[in-house]
Amino acid sequence: MVTEIIEERTPIPEKACIDQHYPDISGVDKFFGSWSLAKGLRHRVIEETGLPISFGLSVN
């Protein structure tokens, strides 16, 4: 379920293993803001699955 949520909302989802994803959200700052997108994904995952989730953002 988590993978589906991330794949729906990010342009380039990358799944590293069962519990780690590295979605490339380059360029979304112009439209949504990286922080807002990540925060929204986290909220949706928690709400729909009940699973705890953390995230980190970094520049490349």
TrEMBL record:
<dbReference type="InterPro" id="IPR043128">
    <property type="entry name" value="Rev_trsase/Diguanyl_cyclase"/>
</dbReference>
<dbReference type="InterPro" id="IPR043502">
    <property type="entry name" value="DNA/RNA_pol_sf"/>
</dbReference>
<dbReference type="InterPro" id="IPR001126">
    <property type="entry name" value="UmuC"/>
</dbReference>
<dbReference type="Pfam" id="PF00817">
    <property type="entry name" value="IMS"/>
</dbReference>
<protein>
    <recommendedName>
        <fullName>UmuC domain-containing protein</fullName>
    </recommendedName>
</protein>
<comment type="similarity">
    <text>Belongs to the DNA polymerase type-Y family.</text>
</comment>
<dbReference type="GO" id="GO:0006281">
    <property type="term" value="P:DNA repair"/>
</dbReference>
<feature type="domain" description="UmuC">
    <location>
        <begin position="1"/>
        <end position="60"/>
    </location>
</feature>
